[in-house]
TrEMBL record:
<dbReference type="Pfam" id="PF00570">
    <property type="entry name" value="HRDC"/>
</dbReference>
<dbReference type="GO" id="GO:0003676">
    <property type="term" value="F:nucleic acid binding"/>
</dbReference>
<dbReference type="InterPro" id="IPR002562">
    <property type="entry name" value="3'-5'_exonuclease_dom"/>
</dbReference>
<feature type="domain" description="HRDC">
    <location>
        <begin position="214"/>
        <end position="294"/>
    </location>
</feature>
<dbReference type="InterPro" id="IPR051086">
    <property type="entry name" value="RNase_D-like"/>
</dbReference>
<dbReference type="InterPro" id="IPR036397">
    <property type="entry name" value="RNaseH_sf"/>
</dbReference>
<protein>
    <submittedName>
        <fullName>3'-5' exonuclease</fullName>
        <ecNumber>3.1.13.5</ecNumber>
    </submittedName>
</protein>
<dbReference type="InterPro" id="IPR010997">
    <property type="entry name" value="HRDC-like_sf"/>
</dbReference>
<dbReference type="GO" id="GO:0008408">
    <property type="term" value="F:3'-5' exonuclease activity"/>
</dbReference>
<keyword id="KW-0540">Nuclease</keyword>
<keyword id="KW-0269">Exonuclease</keyword>
<dbReference type="InterPro" id="IPR044876">
    <property type="entry name" value="HRDC_dom_sf"/>
</dbReference>
<dbReference type="InterPro" id="IPR002121">
    <property type="entry name" value="HRDC_dom"/>
</dbReference>
<dbReference type="GO" id="GO:0006139">
    <property type="term" value="P:nucleobase-containing compound metabolic process"/>
</dbReference>
<dbReference type="Pfam" id="PF18305">
    <property type="entry name" value="DNA_pol_A_exoN"/>
</dbReference>
<dbReference type="GO" id="GO:0033890">
    <property type="term" value="F:ribonuclease D activity"/>
</dbReference>
<keyword id="KW-0378">Hydrolase</keyword>
């Protein structure tokens, strides 16, 4: 499919055009297909730079959130309507930021996982389910570009062109497999989920951090990461374009004494200006000057059980429970033709095995699973096997 059925619509970038779209989509019928394009790797943050919608009776709309930063009127017009998204959890945060949030949704990627499809990208799903090939060459472009090139807009319009058809076909397949109620519970959980809390110590996720062992070196990573993030936010560019993770780790390991020593490190070469080098060296110097009491502690405070690789030494009985639990979950997932992580979250299995209910009865296990957010369909399927594994596992 190379062209949308009604052609590529004009980009909606002002209040008057947006009002017409709101009116058209409010008068449309059936579910609405929704997609959003971000500029990951180019801009700071994950804001939406284009929103695509399609609904029966309204056609396709391409809305520019730069020209129309508040789309709450559009969100309100679609209240009570089922939204169709592909990989909904990726798009919902940026849609929430501009006033759009569904009360009901259908996630075609998650539906594909539950139905047992081996490849669940949008292009692969459209091809295997509907028999169309979508051109996917513009998925990683800089969507903050203005004006957006015509080929990009065509690609964006095609992303929602077949979502309604895909949703209908997947609903039939899930119903045929007896999994439609499972999917509905999953979709409802996604729609009702609150925004995730901010990450604690995001600098610890710097790529290559596993090489950094000493607390003073960790402090350098923290200072450089924080300085980079501040600059990236001010310039509205991806942090990696300001300074690479690899360069941050190199500086942390080397602890350079001055700008000259810093310049010799990979990532701080001659193409970097003197002023930039001085600001990075200043961050290194701040970390080097910190008193020991203010240095970061190695590792993050765990909110749950320790990493499984440490269980055999810390608690052999828990390690045995986890091994048995993983085996029964894997076998059950294979029988049901769906990924293990969709049958039950691996983190939930770990938590139950680390701190199991005292009697390991099915009722107790079911209560613990519910407390960790498992859906009713998951509890019904997993509880008998998991309770059996907890009772019989031996270190």
């Amino acid at each position: 499919m190379l062209e949308p059925r009604e052609g590529v619509p004009p980009v909606v970038a002002d209040a008057e055009a947006l009002a017409r779209v709101v009116e058209a989509f409010a008068a449309g019928t059936g579910p609405v297909a929704v997609d959003a394009e971000r500029a990951s790797g180019y801009r700071y943050g994950q804001r939406a730079y284009l929103v695509q919608l399609r609904r029966e009776g309204a056609g396709t709309a391409l809305v520019d959130p730069v020209g129309c930063p508040d789309l709450s009127a559009l969100g309100e017009a679609l209240d009570g309507t089922e939204w169709i998204l592909h990989a909904a959890t990726q798009d919902l945060p940026c849609l929430r930021d501009i006033g759009m949030l569904p009360s009901e949704l259908f996630d075609t990627e998650l539906a594909g996982r539950l139905a047992g499809f081996p490849r669940v990208g949008l292009g692969a799903m459209v091809e295997s389910v509907l028999g169309y090939v979508l051109e996917k060459g513009h998925s990683a472009v800089d969507w903050s570009t203005r004006p957006l090139p015509e080929p990009w807009l065509r690609y964006a319009a095609l992303d929602v062109e077949l979502l309604v058809d895909l949703r209908d076909a997947l609903e039939k397949e899930l119903d045929r497999q007896g999994k439609l109620e499972w999917a509905r519970q999953e979709f409802a959980a996604i729609a009702a989920a609150p925004p995730p809390p901010p990450r604690k110590d995001p600098w610890r996720r710097t790529s290559g951090m596993h090489k950094v062992r000493r607390r003073r070196q960790m402090a350098v990573v923290r200072e450089l990461w924080t300085a980079r993030d501040r600059i990236a936010q001010r310039r509205d560019v991806s942090p990696g374009k300001v300074l690479s993770d690899a360069a941050i780790v190199e500086a942390a390991l080397a602890l350079p004494a001055d700008v000259q020593a810093l310049t010799a490190l990979p990532g701080f070469g001659s193409r970097m200006g003197r002023r930039q080098l001085e600001q990075w060296q200043a961050a290194v110097d701040r970390a080097k000057a910190l008193p020991d009491a203010q240095l970061p502690q190695p590792g993050q405070a765990l909110a749950g059980p320790p990493p499984p690789r440490a269980w055999a030494e810390k608690d052999p009985a828990a390690a045995a429970r986890l091994s048995a639990a993983r085996a029964v979950v894997s076998a059950l997932a294979e029988t049901l033709s769906l990924p293990q992580e969709n049958l039950i979250a691996p983190d939930t299995v770990r938590r139950v095995c680390w701190e199991p209910p005292r009697d390991a009865s099915e009722d107790s296990v079911a209560q613990v699973l519910a407390g960790h957010g498992a859906r009713p369909w998951q509890i019904e399927l997993v509880t008998p096997a998991l309770a059996g594994a907890l009772r019989t596992a031996k270190p």
